[in-house]
Design brief:
4 helices, Acyl-CoA Binding Protein, single chain, Acyl-CoA-binding_protein, FERM/acyl-CoA-bd_prot_sf, lipid-binding, mainly alpha
Length: 87
């Protein structure tokens, strides 16, 4: 698995029509950010910004994971969501 598969997974995710829970979105987001940018490098948002704080925490939990590992897991998560949508 590599860059091409990762980009295909990104495109697949955008095409999903079924409901995706907020938790699933956070998981996929965190692996995407880790795969594309590496370790979280921005300060934590204020606690009053609940959505931004949740996204930051999800990404920050992946600290130390390699970009390739994050790509592989992202691809797997997107495939799981696609299978779930297709029943």
């Amino acid at each position: 698995m590599g860059q091409v598969e990762f980009e295909l997974a990104c495109a697949t995710l955008k095409q999903l029509k079924g409901p995706v829970s907020d938790q699933e979105k956070l998981v996929v987001y965190s692996f995407y950010k880790q795969a594309t940018q590496g370790d979280c490098n921005i300060p934590a948002p204020p606690d009053t910004d609940v959505k931004a704080k949740a996204k930051w925490e999800a990404w920050n939990e992946k600290k130390g994971m390699t970009k390739m590992d994050a790509m592989r897991i992202y691809i797997t998560k997107v495939e799981e969501l696609k299978k779930k949508e297709n029943g």
